[in-house]
Amino acid sequence: MLKLLSIISIFVVNIYSLNISDKENFYEILSKSKVYVDFNKTKSFKEIQHNIQLFKNNNKKVLSFGYSPNLNLWINFILTNKSDESLDLALEYDNPLTTHIELYSSVDSTTQKDGVYQTVKNRRTLNPAFEIKLNAHESKEFFLKASSHITTLIAKMNLYKQKSFYEKEIKHQLILGLFFASLFVLGLYNLFIYFFTKDISYLYYVLYIFGVIMHQYIYVGMSNIYFFTHKLRVLFIEYSPLLVAFPIFFFGLFTKVFLGTKHYLFINNILNLFLIIIPISIVLFTAFDSLIIYRHIPGILLVIYLIGITIYLSLKNNRQAFFILFGWVIVLSSAILMYLSSIGIFDISQYQPYYIEISFVLEAFIFSIALADRMKQLKYEKNETTLLLRELNHRVKNNMQTIISLIRLQADEVEDEKSLNILTTIQNRINAMSHLHELLYKKSDISYVNAYEYFDILIDDIKQSYEKDIEIVFDIRNDLKIDQAIYCGLILNELVTNSYKHAFLTTKGNIYISLLKDKSNFKLVVKDNGIGYDINKPNNSLGIVLINTLVKEQLKGKIQRDTTDGVEVQIYWNNNG
């Protein structure tokens, strides 16, 4: 009988075992496992172990069971070391919000526990991780039980060599640290503006930013290892409706003040009603567990209404609404992708690991443009002194330089070419605004800026980002209004960056930049002698969309492109537009 069981065991291992070699550093586990769902949550490990027939083969890389499902998920897998030496492995459960996770070993009957409600002491990984040791040519069978009392239950399992896992983890935490530091600096920057201007909209925006920081801090698992005690972390998870509603509530207040909805009585009254309902709903969801399934509805309805307000006021030519709308597109895309990831339908991180974080940085970039426009409005509406505006420009420049420094530090750690290009592009865009604020700080008259001086500094930064011997020829003899200067700087940054990236097959080439003025009409020309491109081929990159938006919506101008001999872009606008 024992011989028969041994033969059956060997046969099962050969079919269902995941073979581990000393050459590969990463293995995806879940699609090579068996699963069983205990809907009654009654079966113990011993019962499960002796009823292996309950398990079914699984071919999915991610399993999702929604929010706080009343079940236990059991996962069975076998690991076999095919090498001649022992292996130290790390099994990562790729979801930091699952409340209870237990890993059982059939061989030595050991149990490892992790999860939000039972986090391992001195843990230093964002996701739950279990250490596994396999001797040479050894096979081990494991059972993993996962359940989630109040958060989403999503199962995704990765197996690494321990060294590779901790190297990946350090890089991941560094990038997330850059993201949080950037948002924190942005929050402080807006807080300074509030202190100087007493404009309440900036205080609401600061509270929104800190709400986003807190939400993301828990969402990505940073709270599992940094600063929060176990009791405090559990408390935040149990009051997650408050955590989600906090940034939405203050963004509603920000929108109310920033867009001036008080001038639209009906719209404003409905918005006020939403702002009253949100806190009341949080109290009800916290007090009555039976209502928890409806916790996201008030926030979702408020977001939909805010988007509707923004679109409506954009059609009414509200200047600030255009900026908010552009920011909404970015934030909403991130929110949708976060939701799809949380329910296991689509995981954007498989294609761009830091899409959500990059989206928040882009949102900050959009609101920096809004800030420049807001500054101009403050000058006319509130008659702020020149000294105050110079101080604001100085603080803007300093804070943007802090963000740029953080990006440069992170770029030194990034080896992926695509991620490095994204960080370089973000850095140059922020530089385009930072240099303008630096020039304004040095001037007594901040109505106009010397276009040649501004463009020359901007181009120098781009040169340093790319190792190419490109000659830049300027023909600029005009000044620009402050609001037009920032738009032209951003446009020029995109066009010249595109030339450096795509125009030249070798490291040499020429780029010609001219700014001409005829009475009140301006003409900005950027031309390179590169290889050109097919103008009829669709191109919906963020850079092209940004250029078109700035030209048509902000400068109220028009744009022409000629790609017959290199690329020549001509932009026309009226100085009084």
Helix proportion range: 40-55%
Number of helices: 15
Low-confidence stretches: 1-15
State which percent range the strand residues make up: 15-25%
Morphology call: globular
Description:
There is one protein chain. Strand 19 (558-562) and strand 20 (567-574) form a beta hairpin. The chain is built from 15 helices and 20 strands. By secondary structure, it is of the alpha+beta class. The protein has a domain at 16-161: Immunoglobulin-like (Sandwich). Residues 1-15 have low confidence and may be disordered. The protein is globular and about 90 Å long.
Summary keywords:
15 helices; globular; Immunoglobulin-like; 52% helix; alpha+beta; 5-stranded mixed beta sheet; disordered N terminus; 7-stranded mixed beta sheet; single chain; 20% strand; 577 residues
Question: How do the strands and helices of this protein lay out in sequence?
Answer:
Blueprint: H1 2-16, E1 17-20, E2 26-28, E3 34-38, H2 45-49, E4 56-57, E5 63-67, E6 72-81, E7 87-93, E8 100-105, E9 111-114, E10 129-134, E11 139-147, E12 152-155, E13 157-161, H3 162-197, H4 200-219, H5 230-238, H6 240-258, H7 265-287, H8 297-315, H9 319-342, H10 355-382, H11 386-413, H12 417-442, E14 448-450, H13 451-465, E15 469-476, E16 479-481, H14 482-503, E17 508-518, E18 521-528, H15 542-554, E19 558-562, E20 567-574
Parallel strand pairs: 1-6, 15-17
Antiparallel strand pairs: 2-13, 3-4, 3-6, 5-12, 6-11, 7-10, 7-13, 8-9, 8-11, 14-16, 17-18, 18-20, 19-20
Helix pairs in contact: 3-4, 3-10, 3-11, 4-6, 6-7, 6-8, 7-8, 8-9, 9-10, 10-12, 10-14, 11-12, 12-13, 12-14, 13-14, 14-15
